[in-house]
Fold:
Amino acid sequence: MLKPMKPKPVLPKNFFLWLLVGLLILSGIITLIAAFNGGEDGADEVNAVYTNAAATLAAQQWTLGSSTPTATFTSFTQTPNATSTAIASPTLSLIQPVASNTAAAGSGSSGAVGCNNSQFITDVTFPDNTVVTPGQAIAKTWRLQNTGTCPWTPSYKVTFISGNAMGGVTTALTTTVQPGQSADITVNMIAPASAGDVSGTWILTNESGQNFGTTFYILVKVAGATTGTVTPTAPSGTDTATPTVTVSIPTATETTTPLPTETPTSTP
Structure:
């Protein structure tokens, strides 16, 4: 009969390694004791201690490196993908107001020339769209104000610049107009023979022949002349008599003439 085999004693893993470490530590302690008891130089003793400690540390590192697996951690940093999102920015549009140099009704604008300037005030005679007859005499009068700093003397004139002058000519002022004052200025014209709308634009001129101030104009309607024979027409709503034609037709009259009758005659 076979006897069971006794298990062999198993030495702990790394037994010899720890034994070596223990011997190194023991030798270090012995060395320190011998150093303190001997007469060696202090620097040699310190070096010996450092040498033994370094040997001990190297042995421990070798033991840990051979017996313990080393886990290697790989670190990484996840960088989020930056998404560029376009954000619509409201656009502020600045509309700059345009300065409007609008003169009064019935006038335009030429502007100041030196110290001379004028402003149209109103039509005194023949306002816009006045109906006139062909060949009618027109004494057109405008009221203007001296808005400059120089007086208007009789050497100043009213000058035609565009449209239909209707026979009007450059006319000199008859009085002096001081700055800030208003004056009525008249030009004589004659309505044209053709019917329709007629206009003409005028302006003031200084003694140097320079036009200045606001322009002013005349606008009339020339009525058409009536020619030819006027044919009267029946007013609306009046009954128009329609002539009646009577036709007489002669009628034949039948006349009956008695025929002679034969009377028998007897002979005796």
User: Anything to note?
Assistant: Residues 67-71, 88-108, 226-255, 263-268 have pLDDT under 50 and may be disordered.
